[in-house]
């Protein structure tokens, strides 16, 4: 692997993101607005916002990064940029990790902005530290990025990339414990939720919201999330082809 190629790819993607105001708005403004809306939906019951808001700090970045990454990566494929890069001596992993690093940096900024807003202006209260929640929010955003990179390989247009969201993201939202406790679901649904990455991302945030110190369960959840990120990136590298459709 070549660090120079990886960093060059990262810099190129970051320049593209910087000159795309719609993407910047989706990454930074939309999650902040949705958190603010949720805060005032539960204005008379702040305890509910504390319970749901901390989960949304992971869910919103996950969804936004999934959309942005899958569409941006597909654009690289369909415009021929990726094909041209693959004809050079660059290794697939050099390119993929370059994309991943760029989107991971964007994810970190996005999650930091959302967490800062929630704690500083929206009075979010958790037993654990705001820094831990922010770190988990960044991990969730990176998870969305990694899955988005992988899913982009199976789409032929930007519209198809967006269509994958109901297939890959919505089931995880429904079964991760956000809407209803997983242990109160039908047994077969709970088993399905046990193999979904977002389940562990949400569980980690719930642990921090309830406990002042890091728990063994939280570290287990973080380990699963990191493992899913690595697996998604490696599978994404395997899908890179030298010829675009």
Automatic annotation (TrEMBL):
Record field: transmembrane: 21-42, 54-74, 95-122, 128-154, 161-180, 222-240
Keywords, in A-Z order: Antibiotic resistance, Cell membrane, Membrane, Transmembrane, Transmembrane helix, Transport
Homology family: Belongs to the ABC-2 integral membrane protein family.
InterPro entries: ABC-2_transporter_component (IPR051449), ABC2_TM (IPR013525), ABC2_TM_bact-type (IPR047817), ABC_2_transport (IPR000412)
Residue ranges occupied by any ABC transmembrane type-2 domain in the UniProt entry: 18-243
Organism: Planosporangium thailandense
Membrane topology summary: Multi-pass membrane protein
Subcellular localization, as worded in the UniProt entry: Cell membrane
Tree of life domain: Bacteria
Name under which the protein is recorded: Transport permease protein
